[in-house]
Write the structure tokens for this entry.
Amino acid sequence: MNDLATYNFAYLDEQTKRMIRRAILKAIAIPGYQVPFASREMPMPYGWGTGGVQVTASILGPNDVLKVIDQGADDTTNAVSIRAFFQKVANVAVTTKTKEATIIQTRHRIPEEPLRDGQTLVYQVPIPEPLRFLEPRETETRKMHALEEYGLMHVKLYEDIARNGHIATTYAYPVKVEGRYVMDPSPTPKFDNPKMHMSEALQLFGAGREKRIYAVPPHTEVVSLDFEDHPFEIQKFDKPCALCGAANVYLDEVVLDDKGGRMFVCSDTDHCEGRQAHGHAGPMLARPRHQCKEPAE
Amino acid sequence: MSAVPLLKVKDVSKFYGSRIGCRSVSFVLYPGEVLAVVGESGSGKTTLLSCLSTRLMPSSGIIEYHMRDGQYRDLAHMGEAERRFLMRTDWGFVHQNPADGLRMTVSAGANVGERLMAVGDRHYGNIRASASDWLRRVEIGEDRIDDQPRTFSGGMRQRLQIARNLVTSPRLVFMDEPTGGLDVSVQARLLDLVRGLVHDLGLAAVIVTHDLAVARLLSHRMMVMKDGTVIEQGLTDRVLDDPREPYTQLLVSSILQV
Amino acid sequence: MATPLVVSEVAKSFTMHLRDGVRLPVVANVSFSVKAGECVVLGGPSGVGKSSILKMLYGNYGVDEGQILMEHDGRLVNLADAEPRTVLEVRRTTLGYVSQFLRVVPRVSALDIVAEPLQARGVVAQEARERAAQLLAKLNLPKELWPLPPATFSGGEQQRVNIARGFITDHRILLLDEPTASLDAKNRAVVVEMIAEKKAQGTALVGIFHDEEVRDAVADRIIDVSEFSPRRHAA
């Protein structure tokens, strides 16, 4: 660590962290509103979570316990590098356990286990503007947010139904926050949208390239947009997780061979491992059957 | 005809620096009345239309609109939110180039339904039914409802733009050369359609055109503009049959006879 | 009943700006009135200003001087200086006009063209169409033509559509600009009969008829328009 002593705690300098904290405070004060901030160059390319990293760096304290997930997994390249980055520049404790973490930086997922009071979820956001799909002008989208002109959001959903017979948007599904701002929940699957609603944890969103920060404070109403005759629905999976047997969780498809063999497993690796440790088992778990004590869940 | 004007325009001028856009234009427009503004390019008719429709702020003068609540409101003193709301509910604006008034990359149905969704309609089935009804009224086959206007002909696009504007039952529609750039046969169909809709819906309209035949067919009254000022106005057939001003006489005598 | 139409000291000239502003006086000091149930025919050689007077009465031509007074909706309106929208209102309910030529609207059927003035006055479409059909039948317009736009009709057919359109309402004043010009004897007789009916209903009519036979049959009074020649007044 000695050769890194010249770095400031959590990499960013204090003035930058202050600037970002001010943006975060403003974002918390106006739930769902995109606050512009002076995004810095980070030692990783755009698209690797520079927005989330800057938010995390600004709120991180020496006593925090950090968890980083990418598509629900703690062991992917992106998650591993970001975790290693903060271990180096802030020397903070890291974990893969949702329960133990105080700050969770995420790309594309919200952990299955309900978050609690005192935890902060930091999202990495590529495109923060939900209206961008139909309105390319930033000046116009900002005006639309200011004047609460959100008809366009429903135009997008209308197009979905007209084309597919149902709302086919499965990720980055727009939500209305506290009855005011329409927000893009970043490319999380719409499966996770209900978890944002009235969450006990603080949710912060950072978009590094687009230089925007927004937030959903704890206990805030987050409603997914829909039509009366085409209500919002989350994805449903036919089978439980092949490894831990969990139902009602988000599953990833894993291709097993070139003969069409595949399995569906928990996208949240920590959740899956935790269940396995408690003895839950799915049909494809490679473990002696005698160890299984299938609980009545 | 209602006794109360829908739009009261008093002494409206617009200057671009020292250059005159339009100068001291005054008129009142009643519900159900169609006013044609004619003149050649650069005569100030489009500037006037922009001022009336709040796309431009006049340099001086007052434009008052009779709101649905019965009150007159000075458009210049209206908040932006209210003005934009007015523009997508009680008003319509038909651009010369349909691409300026349509979303070219969403379906015809969504183009028509957008205003309904903007005012809070949240029932897909109803929105689609309205869209399909309006496509029929502007003579676009209902089987085209899910096609993007990119695949439409010029005439169809223009008709779609009209449907998109009329779906919220506006009381006032502004049209900027609605038949410009269309083939003559397509023009005739569009004019007839607009004429029928204006009549059936009791719309008030301000139509900017350089085509006197359009003015004759659609408007009750007309204003002739030259160099930013209104030089002659009155009943449409009076101005066309008995033009008084030298410029109007020139304009009328310049119509090609076929 | 008040006199439906009073024309008082009306003068009209044209200024031709495209011909060096030359001023062409047309008529001056035009004064006459038309009683209910009376048919007044404007006479005199062509070019004397008969059509101009009719167009001033309808509001197509502006008026330089004088008054054109009509009783409209229980009040007196001076058409010479009325607002455009008043003129339109008068045309809708009080003042009818049968022109020589039909201004064809693309894609509208003959039947609907005839029915339109009635619908504009609030009569339901079905009833207006029935009335229109009666009139077209009376004027011997072949039934096959009714659903077609009259753009391709012959002059006589168009004129009959025009006449039916002008006669369908019960306007108190009706202006007729050579309504029988391109009709055969049989249909001329029908029009003469229709004019007689209008007179019996108390309509005030002002017309131009070049056909002497028709003129003699309908006219209660002939006004020689050369009386209103501006040159005569200047002299």
Q: What stands out?
A: The interface with chain B takes residues 14-18, 21, 55, 59-62, 84-85, 87-89, 105-108 of chain C (CB under 8 Å). Residues 185-200 of chain C form the longest helix (16 residues). Residues 162 and 204 of chain C are 19 Å apart (CA to CA). Chain C has eight helices and nine strands.
